[in-house]
Amino acid sequence: MVPALLSPILSRLGLWASGLILVLGFLKLSCLLLRRQKLARAMDSFPGPPTHWLFGHALEMQQTGSLDKVVSWAHQFPYAHPLWFGQLLGFLNIYEPDYAKAVYSRGDPKAPDVYNFFLQWIGKGLLVLEGSKWFQHRKLLTPGFHYDVLKPYVAVFADSTRVMLDKWEEKAREGKSFDIFCDVGRMALDSLMKCTFGRGESGLDDSRDSSYYLAVRDLTLLMQQRLESFQYHNDFIYWLTPHGRRFLQACQVAHNHTDQVIRERKAALQDEKEQKKIQNRRHLDFLDILLCAQDENGVKLSDADLRAEVDTFMFEGHDTTTSGISWFLYCMALYPEHQRRCREEACEILGDRDSFQWDDLGKMTYLTMCIKESFRLYPPVPQVYRQLSKPVSFVDGRCLPAGSLISLHIYALHRNSTVWPDPEVFDPLRFSPENVAGRHPFAFMPFSAGPRNCIGQQFALNEMKVVTALCLLRFEFSLDPTRPPIKTTQLVLRSKNGIHLHLKPLGPGSGK
Ligand code: HEM
Ligand SMILES: *[C@@H]1O[C@H](CO)[C@@H](O)[C@H](O)[C@H]1NC(C)=O
Ligand SMILES: *[C@@H]1O[C@H](CO)[C@@H](O)[C@H](O)[C@H]1NC(C)=O
Questions:
Q1: What is the separation of C-alpha 34 from the centre of its chain, rounded to a whole number of angstroms?
Q2: Which of 207, 209, 253, 256, when mutated, tests ligand 3's pocket best, judged by the most ligand atoms within 8 Å of its CB?
Q3: Where are the transmembrane segments (predicted)?
Q4: Spelled out in words, what is the top-level CATH class assigned to the domain 115-374+445-505?
Q5: Quick count: other Cβ atoms within 10 Å of Cβ 126?
Q6: Distance from the alpha carbon of residue 38 to the mean position of ligand 1, in angstroms
Q7: Staple 322 to which of 44, 50, 188, 502, CB 3.0 to 4.6 Å?
Q8: Are 286 and 141 in contact (CB under 8 A)?
Q9: What is the pLDDT of residues 328-384, one digit of tens each?
């Protein structure tokens, strides 16, 4: 029992505490409203679609078809329009080459309102970092993507692809269409683990990879939903919801996977024989670089920094290419004529050899144009966000102050009909050297552009070429008209119902 003397003191304390919470809550709310007013006022000169009083444009963004909704808004509101997720978070959504150039040619930081949602999962790795630390890590990791490092990966891509194609051979025998997205994902993760994380054949661990793969699928979906639901924006509230707890659980699965990778490589580094091997390698791989990195004072990367980079690359390195390869194969099924030409080219390059070599990649000109055209229509990363560190003025004289938030809608940018006549038509010749030469450098940005562009661009293109060429040599791809894919953004471009295709084995020596 509380002594009688104490109880008035306690009740007074309770009163003070509730008062304090009320005042803090009020202050926080005023800050948010003030910021809202600043964001909204900055965008005064940009008309846009009507907003819901509570949700802003979030309801439209959550609906199926939201990507094409933005394309129709782009027609109505040239260059840019305000885009609100709820009432407190507003971006200027841009989709015009000169607008994109004004922002993306500078190195403005990522919008923390979006990228902070990543922190629990991939921490402060290259994707999220800012300022001098970002610069230092970018400089450190760039040699991990030097072409001498990338060369041997060609054989790794081919091996991982072959495993997938053998599996497809069995599935195709049933004569039914099937979803290719998942299998491509596992293949892309497997080759990433072997290239970037140096996993040997012996280290293959299917069930661990599988749970990681599924966790990433969950995490990207949850993060996209969080972004589009203002009630989840506050960290404190989010972690209390079932949605937030599911996110934390999936994070744990992902972290288990990365921890294991780091642990294994660290153990290998203890081994003298392994150390000799690394010293003899002319170019270190990504994980060697991270583990051996020291600054001029001999200080190594902290465990947290190391883990963040491994988490970042593990995610960025497979989910994006999975989307790219899957949508490319869908395009091939949709346009048999282009499929045939890519296959003929691949046959010709291959001759009587059974796999591709580094020098072959440069010869795949038609395939490369088709890959770019499929990046245009189905960009694996459809939308990226920035916060202006200094004011910007656009070509038409309108401007935005520092602190404003920008959303670059790559999907809508790639469908601008002035730059891309008949934008919905699949035409690889848009990427012939003559046509590229005459085009605005910021009209095509699948890998973003400027100082914060994709560090894995060359890795990704090489992988795309090897994998898709081998796919086309083994199978003929055609559509399942009963199951058209439904485009949806979950950080990367996916399909709500998978990508279902019919595969017809071409048999050995086919087409040669
Ligand atoms: C088709 C495949 C890919 C596409 C379309 C793609 C696209 C992009 C885009 C649009 C960005 C900018 C993101 C932003 O501004 O928020 C980016 C950044 C990044 N990408 Fe990729 N990416 C691909 C493959 C890869 C691969 C294979 C890796 C690693 C092996 C990778 C690693 C990264 C990293 C670390 C960043 C952050 C770079 C920085 O901010 O300095 N990406 N990527
Ligand atoms: C497409 O780009 C052109 C040239 O940059 C621009 O004039 C036009 O307004 C853009 N269209 C849209 C819908 O943004
Ligand atoms: C993480 O790994 C440990 C063992 O290494 C296991 O006991 C635990 O259940 C795993 N957690 C998750 C969420 O997978």
A1: 32
A2: 256
A3: 13-34
A4: mainly alpha
A5: 20
A6: 31
A7: 188
A8: yes
A9: 999 999 999 999 999 999 999 999 898 999 999 999 999 999 999 999 999 999 999
